[in-house]
Amino acid sequence: MRVKTFEAASMQDALDIVKKEMGEEAFILSTRTRRRPSALGLGEETVIEVTAAVDEAAPALKEQAVGAPPLTYGLRPPMGPPPVARPAREAARPQAGPPAPPMDLQPLRRELLEIKGAVAALKDNDLHNASILEELDQLKTMLNRLQRQGMPPAQLQLPPSLLDLYGDLAANDVEPMIALRLCEFAQRALTEQDGDGASGNVDPERARLFLRRVIADFIPVASPIQLDPGKMRVAALVGPTGVGKTTTLAKLAAYAQLKLKQKVALLTLDTYRVAAVDQLQQYAQILQVPMHVALTVEDLRGAIRFYQDRALVLIDTPGHSPKDTEVLGQLRNLLDELPEVETHLVLSATTKPRDLVEIAARYEPLRPTRLLFTKLDETSTYGPILSTLVRVKRPLSYLGTGQEVPEALELATSRRVADLILPGVKEVQ
Fold it and tell me: Is the pTM of this model over 0.85?
């Protein structure tokens, strides 16, 4: 590893020198501000001293920074929903949550064999009772599905229409216990609506529409970032590496600058990689907004004072592993300087459900006030969003649906998320 110390008049100049001499893979070890005699011998001047390092022992795996895409104007509303692929109806084995209790499938297999024999006998005897044959075929299909999913016995108490909905939720990677509780609630409510106390089957489309409304009512959503005249609003994006914080920050800045006609400033606390600063700098140049690099509490205080005239200051943060408690502690110390900061925990919709809950727990010391999910365009299952909202209990702010700036960002609504979790029903307006 090669380590070198550089001096410059400003932090941006120092980072430019580091990048030029050590490359984009260099990372910052330490920074400090000090005074030295001026070149002309007249008093003193302030210099920024940056110590950087680069690993030259082996070719580094270069992490290609996402280029700043060209901005488009007036092509479509920036908050419009993108096309969403409906998940397959066949339920996959859930990836998260407590394991289902072992199920004795022998009675089901025996019953299935009996059903198959009965169907064959009916057909052999040329009995064309369509309703009986249809009912037997439906029961056979249901039992096949139970065998494939290994459902716990409790789910056998659900009527066929709600069993089908349970399968759709499980196929969309909703945790099995959450899916079961939703279906049980729907069963009780629909039975009460019928008024006869019966626990029989209900119309499938009616059940699907009702359950979708239940999910929508359950999902907490946050209002968009509020910009008040004459008042500076500060919002920070935190989260693990690779979830798209910088791109999302550029989308928020572009929407406020181009659509809302508000003055915006960008502030980054992420100088661990020089390339990260470059990526945000590209966006700042395209949007024609100022960008400031802050490494210390003093830098942060100075930047906030300087941008008091801005309606919105957006803060990008380092994307380290959530297990790096030291870095998270340093980040918390910086954010504690901003008591009114609106902190969005950015998560990827492609992350495994159990990992999402663990990440949220590790970022809890930063006291995030909202959740923001990205990369909806890179997955076909959206159940982990619902499962995370159940566990974390924070409102959902925005949904990232692609790389386009600012179009591929939409304000989260409960109806939109419910449609992702349980698609296929068009509600009557």
Answer: no
